[in-house]
Amino acid sequence: MSESTLAEIYGWTLERHILEQQRTVEGATGEFTKLFQQLALAGKIIASRVNQAGLVDVLGVTGETNVQGEQVQKLDEFANQALIRVLEAGGQVCLMASEEVEDPIPIPTKFPRGKYVLMFDPLDGSSNIDVNISIGTIFSVHQRVTDSDAEPALSDCLQPGYKQVAAGYIIYGSSTMFVYTTGQSVHGFTLDPTVGEFFLSHPNIQMPKRGKIYSVNEGNAAKWSDDVRAWVDDFKISDEDRGRPYSGRYIGTLVADFHRTLLKGGIFGYPADNKNPNGKLRLLYEGAPMAMIAKAAGGDASTGTQKILDITPTELHQRVPLYIGSADDVAEVERVLG
After folding, report:
1. Half-sphere exposure (CA, 13 Å, Cβ side) for 212?
2. Which CATH number covers residue 302?
3. Radius of gyration of the chain (CA)
4. Per-residue pLDDT tens for 21-45?
5. Same domain flag for 264 and 182
6. Is residue 207 part of a domain?
7. 15 near 36, Cβ under 8 Å?
8. Of 153, 176, 202, which residue is a domain's last?
9. C-alpha to C-alpha distance for 327 and 324, rounded to whole angstroms
10. Whole-model pTM?
11. Same domain, 45 and 75
12. Residue 235 lies in a domain
């Protein structure tokens, strides 16, 4: 690699990238940049603990059950607390919500409050922690809608996805990457652990218009509707004119499956079924932030009958079916299910 290329890469940290964007926004106060500094710090703390899995006592369950009725993993709890403790003191957030916590998380009165509302899945894919498969943190940022003189309220969290001001994820795998969008483009930053900084490695990510990979848990096929089964079966038909067959790839961690789909194209699906008629993935912590990223990268996201970004949530832990990926692949599932 040439010296100029190294200079270009190692000059563009996550912080510098956001500062450069901030300069183009009239009236910007720097709060958004500080918020992302805190998110990056939380990501580094979580990554350091994830990388010690198997060496220190961070694997296994705590014995607790979360609001979703799932066993809480030790790393789940660590990641949740890391995000809360880092973000609550920064002064940029007025309210938070976590997939692991039943109610919105207020900011203690001893800390200043900002204008942003942060929602997050602290450690997506926790069932894969002990088998060394990529896991991640997903986050969504809104501006509060209640009066700044009033107490933040549940209504600040229950906003449709198209009102997000930013969304992203941090994936902990062969490397740690921070991927985010503010709605116009998607950029990926890779953590260099030797210097402790995220450097721009994937500028302006664009999802292929159509892919060659489908990602769905076919172990649930017996519970699907006939239309969903027909949609999946169609991927396996040999038809060169339609680019069939597709390759099947399913990791079982939304962050990991979506990250591959973002870079390679194709579609990830988690359909509703007769056990989960409203779907299983959470709208505010998984569906909406990933949909914003997909849209900004030229892809799309849908329930099969409605765009994910158009849904106005009515519950903090609302679930939805999710089909997300290349625009043509999502349009096709909407034709089948719509």
Report:
1. 7
2. 3.40.190.80
3. 20
4. 877 665 557 889 999 999 999 999 9
5. no
6. no
7. yes
8. 202
9. 8
10. 0.92
11. yes
12. yes
If residue 138 lies in a helix (H) or strand (E), which one and from where to where? Answer: strand 135-143
Return the closest-CA partner of residue 121 out of 144, 97, 103, 137: 137
Residue with tokens 């009066």: 147
Q: Which of 101, 97, 29 is nearest to 70 (CA)?
A: 101
Same domain, 32 and 96: yes
Amino acid (1-letter code) at residue 237: I
d(CA 330, CA 103): 33
Q: Is 252 left (phi over 0), alpha (psi -120 to 50) or beta?
A: left
100: three-class secondary structure by DSSP = coil
Per-residue pLDDT tens over the stretch 95-134: 999 999 999 999 999 999 999 999 999 999 877 777 778 9
Q: Is residue 40 part of a domain?
A: yes
Residue the block writes with tokens 């062969």: 174
- In degrees and rounded to multiples of 5, residue 322 shows phi and psi of -140, 125
* Pair (288, 263) in one structural domain: yes
Confidence band (pLDDT; 50, 70, 90) for 336?
Answer: very high
